[in-house]
Amino acid sequence: MHNSIRNKGMVFTIFISLTISVSAQNTDLKLWYNAPAENVWEAALPVGNGRLGAMVFGNPGQEQISLNEASIWSGGPNRNDNPEALNALPEIRKLIFEGQYQQASKMAAQHIQSKRINGMMYQPAGDFRLVFPGHENYAGYYRELDLESAVAKTTYKVGNITYTRTVFSSVPDQAIIIHLTADKPGSLTFEASLLSEHNSKVIVAKDNILYLSAQSSDKDGVKGAVKFETGVGIKQKGGTISSDNGNLKVSGASSATVYISIATNFVNYKDISADEKTKNAAYLHAVMQKSYRRLSKDHITAYQKYFNRVQINLGKTPSAGLPTDQRVAEFAKGNDPQLAALYYQFGRYLLISSSQPGGQPANLQGIWNNKMNPPWGSKYTININTEMNYWPAEESNLSEMHGPLIEMVKELSETGKETARVMYGAAGWVTHHNTDLWRISGPVDAINYGMWPMGGAWLSRHLFEKYLYNGDREYLKTVYPALKGAAQFYLDFLVEEPVKGWMVVSPSMSPENSPKSHQEISIAAGTTMDNQLVFDLFTNTIRAAEALNTDVVLIDKLKKMRMRLPPMQVGQYGQLQEWIQDLDNPNDKHRHVSHLFGLYPAGQISPYHTPQLFEAAKNSMIQRGDVSTGWSMGWKVNLWARLQDGNHAYKLITNQLTPAGVNQGENSGGGTYPNLFDAHPPFQIDGNFGCTAGITEMLMQSHDEAIHLLPALPDAWKDGSISGLRARGGFEIERLVWKDGHLYEVVIKSTLGGKCRLRVPNQIKGRKLAVAAGNNPNPFFQSLEVKPAIISATAGLRPAEIKDTLLYEVDTKPGKTYKFKISQ
Ligand code: FUC
């Protein structure tokens, strides 16, 4: 735990002295602390440019900056298909349909599970250390991460000299920059070194440039083939620089700038032929030509281009003068709306910092990992976690950050083609529940987790969703082949189940859960999530093909097959069934809520079109409970927002903004670390992104035929505003203001034109605004035609309670802005 929590007396004294400097500046968008992270990685502050990540500890005497580069992964290009699957498939399906789950699972373990390769690991580059002799005794300590500039800063005093360090990771200059100053000339003296847990070699080259070269680890018999080099150059003002024993030494300087670059031999998932040394030299040479001021200016401009698009104000906080970790500890006690706003913007900060155009998508830890063998390989778990990372991308106006995921899906559509063919004899492409830098598409881990041929279905949703926001047919053309390929796989793979004649996915599972009556065996056919996923994929493919005026025969096939998918079912406890049979246990607190994919993100369950399913989904959510792993709580914020219950969504935010380890319950410990990283535990970035998306969903949703403003506003956020959100149909919510729980003003810019339909909690007025009725003709808001639910005789379903709302609409023109205000 962080020092400040342990040592309250000391904190109090420092706090008093700090309030003066802190209250003088605006801390709304700062994470700040009055103690160093010491050796707690989850208290260190993350900076990143999508490719280069650093965790800044802010330790005065021995500064530690942990380094990452997004393409340093164990192994090299590889595949993990198990071709034995093809022959075993009919027998496994038969066993499942006969209810012989144990046998089916055993056979799948023998013939479908990967024989050896279970995904590679994302690995750290190493550490950059700075030793400052005599800085062990310091005073006036303060460190922060400023979300407005994406700069981490540490400052303290030794004697009467104030030392300051700033750190950022620059997109335009592809380097990590550290700037060190002392306010008395000539008093900066330190030693710098590079370390790595990899087998590495450190040399000091000419002009005092430090280089560390290494190669990634072997795993599962795949040779570690990512070669990387880290380079460090220092330019100091005043004093001297020298090298000694692989270290750089700066003595008696007034200020210094440290330039860190890292390069690897990675080109793409099948090509590692680059020369890391040439690349690295080019990065370092270029960046060292620039002054700190210039680098800082360019960095901030590049970052703010994205960050400044959204501003949020959920209300003022009396306790905003406390350090961030203390605010997390106290969030549940009182109302700290500003911390929720900070957490929201931190989610956006993390996405900008871990997912940049042309790079890798954010993995389980974004780009920040200090372990050689991290939890779950810090890879891509695609049965929820990776998708969740991108939930905030479009709606919180970070569309460019979505790009790396879209590219990954395209690459998986290449690797997954072979998997579909050799394992299942199917056309199109398939991938299972995990992938990695090498875009493996076979099953990973034990069969109870890995038997899920649905990764492509869920990921492909992102291809089409992006189009719903940008309306760009040229973009749609580039992703259509991957979308179509994903759908083609299921056209071949679906199989008729014997009871109702429905077409189902088999073998599969409801991610990582198993019905109690099946002795914890997860293998299953026709799970609710799979049915929803295939429905979603077919629907999106049909809509994309229609928008592109292509593939009429395929559209027809998909429409016919979609009719044969199982409907959603409401079981004996009034719940939305998780499995095709009514097997749910109302006391099941499992972290995955897979069957609610249909509610969020997929929008197949609607209070207006499917009120019974809406009620059943709510019952399932109540039965599943609140506290869970970090990402599970993040998902539940979105789900309660879709259920239009703002106070329950807020309760989940409170559960999430609880210090890691404090929450009790079946999946205890989920919450937030001192640096606001999400705790699964351990650290997993998905919960940050899930909760950020959830806060947007509480304020604005855009599906189900309308832009719904304030669909789930909690009592805690009576007054506030948000600007810059994006809605489907190419609408930008330039301003959304609410007062005393009522929608006060909304300004919407239309980029594509078309009908703009608004669902609002109170009357509004504005030019040409009319009351709306009937279907929304805007194609981006098409309502989904889901099959009527089958409801168990003992479900005891109450009619759904739906909040009163009003529907308005206005015809819009591209580029024009529309303003509406409350009308009393
Ligand atoms: C899924 C989840 C776990 C964890 C892992 C990375 O398997 O069930 O909780 O988040 O991914």
UniProtKB/TrEMBL annotation:
GO process annotations (BP): carbohydrate metabolic process
Limits of the Alpha fucosidase A-like C-terminal domain: 701-765
Residues annotated as domain Glycosyl hydrolase family 95 N-terminal: 31-268
GO molecular function: alpha-L-fucosidase activity
Pfam families documented for this protein: Glyco_hyd_65N_2, Glyco_hydro_95_C, Glyco_hydro_95_cat
Transmembrane portions of the chain: none
UniProt domain Glycosyl hydrolase family 95 catalytic: residue ranges: 291-699
Source organism, top-level taxon: Bacteria
Signal peptide region: none
Alphabetized PANTHER family for the sequence: ALPHA-L-FUCOSIDASE 2
Protein name: Alpha-L-fucosidase 2
Source organism of this protein record: Pedobacter antarcticus
Phylogenetic placement of the source organism: Bacteria, Pseudomonadati, Bacteroidota, Sphingobacteriia, Sphingobacteriales
